[in-house]
Amino acid sequence: MTLYVSKSASVALTAEKLKAIFKEQDADGNGLLTREELRKAFEKLGSRYPDWRVRRSLSHADTDGDGSISLDELDELVKYVIKLGYKVARSAISI
């Protein structure tokens, strides 16, 4: 389910909601978000170019250079995503 909608009918996602969206994509529960898990999260957020967004997010948040986002790096990822201005439909606020 894509959460992203036009800016006129939406509100900004909070950091906590963004963290929850990313954490729910951690399919194997190992505390690391792989490229594929990040891609799924950006698809859920409605990114038009999720693969490109994954590359950019890794360059912003993958501080140890291992090619994934750890729980320690999640805050940096969330800061980056907030700067991008992703929004959620008012009807989906209870996510």
SSE topology:
Elements lengths: L9 E3 L2 H10 L7 E2 L1 H10 L5 H12 L7 E2 L3 H11 L2 E3 L6
Antiparallel strand pairs: 1-4, 2-3
Helix pairs in contact: 1-4, 2-3, 3-4
Summarize this structure as a short list of keywords or feature phrases.
95 residues; mainly alpha; Recoverin, domain 1; two-stranded antiparallel ribbon; two-stranded antiparallel sheet; 4 helices; 11% strand; disordered C terminus
**Rg estimate, integer Å:** 12 Å
Strand order of the largest sheet: 1-4
How many structurally independent domains?
1
| Contiguous helical run count | 4
Proportion of helical residues? 40-55%
Assembly status:
single chain
Distance between the termini: 11 Å
CATH topology: Recoverin, domain 1
What would you give as the CATH superfamily? EF-hand
Beta-strand percentage range: 5-15%
Overall outline: globular
| Number of strand elements | 4
Specify the biggest β-sheet: 2 strands, antiparallel
Q: What is the succession of H and E elements?
A: EHEHHEHE
Which CATH architecture is right? Answer: Orthogonal Bundle
Q: Indicate the low-confidence ranges by residue numbers.
A: 4-9, 91-95
GO molecular function, one term: calcium ion binding
Pfam families: EF-hand_7
InterPro entries: EF-hand-dom_pair, EF_Hand_1_Ca_BS, EF_hand_dom
Protein name: EF-hand domain-containing protein
Question: Explain this structure to me?
Answer:
By secondary structure, the protein is mainly alpha-helical. Helices cover 45% and strands 11% of the residues. It is built from four helices and four strands; from the N terminus they run βαβααβαβ. It has a two-stranded antiparallel sheet. Strands 2-3 form a two-stranded antiparallel ribbon. α1 packs across α4, α2 crosses α3 and α3 crosses α4.
